[in-house]
């Protein structure tokens, strides 16, 4: 993290954990602990399940907290007969800032493809939500030596027909699938190498100026004990955190990454 124009982001992806009552206690705990200096240094984002978004919004609004929140998915459709889906306009009404799109669990369990990810990125932009696009390779792909090509193809697919002014605002999360929830963390150098490759790809598709603005996060078994070394990499602008973000105390330590060993 060396570029001053890119504010670091620490984003907690709760996945299908923490119910709406627990989410109120969680956000209150964050509110007690976070101070101005934390918010000034790092953007704090949480991705609660859909059922908690209203509760999270209410606590954040009531106390004017500088915590932003996102949805873990978004429908590619505006409205209609899509049972179980949630549209971008519904999320916007709840003052959601981010839509997490293309998480590897959605790609694996819900058969999301680069095309459907691209459609969701467009739906987010149409509704003034910032896409946080997750990409990354499986262990097989890494072992076959194709991790970079695979990940950059996912980027190209996700960004198809997206204009540069939107691209400079969005966030890309590089999450090697083999490091998610496994305790296996990529080395800081692995995170840097892929983040740089992603930035160079964005420069090639758009411009260096756009690439310099895009924030690139690393995700995969991040915790307080390893976050600092990852954040010291020049092209890593933050982290997407799953398991470790379920404990607000651990998430707070991650948010205070410069103080960690
Ligand atoms: C994730 O699911 O986005 C993630 C990074 O999970 P974990 O931190 O548990 O590996």
Number of helix segments? Answer: 13
Structural class based on helices, strands and sheet pairing: alpha/beta
**If strands are numbered along the chain, what order do they take across the biggest sheet?**
1-2-3-4-5-6-7-8
Percentage of residues in helical conformation? 40-55%
Strand residue content: 5-15%
Mean pLDDT: 96
* Gap between N and C termini: 17 Å
> How would you spell out the order of helices and strands?
EHHEHEHEHHEHHHEHHEHEH
How many strands? 8
Shape: globular
Low-confidence stretches: none
Small molecules in complex: phosphoenolpyruvate
Give a verbal description of the structure.
The longest helix is centred in the last third of the chain and has 18 residues, at about 190-205. The two termini are about 15 Å apart. The protein has an eight-stranded parallel barrel with strand order 1-2-3-4-5-6-7-8, surrounded by five helices. The protein has helices at about 20-35, 35-40, 55-60, 90-95, 105-110, 115-125, 140-145, 145-160, 165, 190-205, 210-215, 225-230, 250-255; strands at about 10-15, 45, 65-70, 100, 130-135, 170-175, 215-220, 240. The chain is α/β, with parallel strands linked by helices. Helices cover about 45% and strands about 15% of the residues.
Task: Provide key terms for this protein.
8 strands, 8-stranded parallel beta barrel, binds phosphoenolpyruvate
Secondary structure layout plus pairing:
Layout: E1 9-13, H1 20-33, H2 36-41, E2 43-47, H3 53-62, E3 67-71, H4 88-93, E4 98-101, H5 104-109, H6 114-126, E5 130-135, H7 139-143, H8 147-158, H9 164-167, E6 171-174, H10 188-205, H11 208-213, E7 215-219, H12 227-231, E8 238-241, H13 248-255
Parallel strand pairs: 1-2, 1-8, 2-3, 3-4, 4-5, 5-6, 6-7, 7-8
Helix pairs in contact: 1-3, 6-8, 8-10
This protein binds phosphoenolpyruvate.
Phosphoenolpyruvate (PEP) binds next to strand 8.
């Amino acid at each position: 993290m060396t570029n001053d124009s890119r504010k670091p982001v620490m984003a907690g992806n709760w996945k299908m954990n923490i119910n709406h009552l627990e989410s109120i206690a969680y956000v209150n705990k964050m509110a007690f602990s976070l101070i101005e200096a934390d918010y000034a240094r790092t953007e704090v984002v949480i991705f609660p399940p859909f059922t908690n978004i209203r509760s999270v919004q209410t606590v954040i609004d009531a106390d004017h907290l500088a915590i932003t929140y996102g949805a873990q998915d978004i429908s590619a459709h505006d409205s209609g007969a899509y049972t179980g889906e949630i549209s971008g306009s519904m999320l916007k009404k709840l003052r959601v800032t981010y839509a997490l799109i293309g998480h590897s669990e959605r790609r694996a369990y819900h058969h999301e493809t680069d095309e459907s990810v691209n459609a969701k990125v467009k739906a987010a932009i149409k509704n003034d939500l910032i896409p946080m696009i997750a990409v990354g390779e499986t262990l097989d792909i890494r072992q076959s030596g194709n991790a970079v090509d695979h990940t950059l193809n996912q980027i190209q697919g996700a960004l198809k027909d997206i204009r540069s002014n939107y691209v400079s605002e969005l966030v890309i999360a590089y999450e090697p699938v083999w490091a998610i929830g496994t305790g296996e963390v990529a080395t800081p150098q692995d995170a840097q190498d892929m983040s740089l490759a992603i930035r160079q790809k964005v420069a090639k598709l758009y411009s260096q100026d756009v690439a310099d603005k895009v924030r690139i996060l690393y995700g995969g078994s991040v915790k307080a004990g390893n976050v600092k070394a990852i954040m010291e990499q020049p092209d890593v602008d933050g982290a997407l955190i799953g398991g470790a973000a379920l404990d607000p105390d651990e998430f707070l330590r991650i948010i205070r990454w410069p103080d960690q060993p």
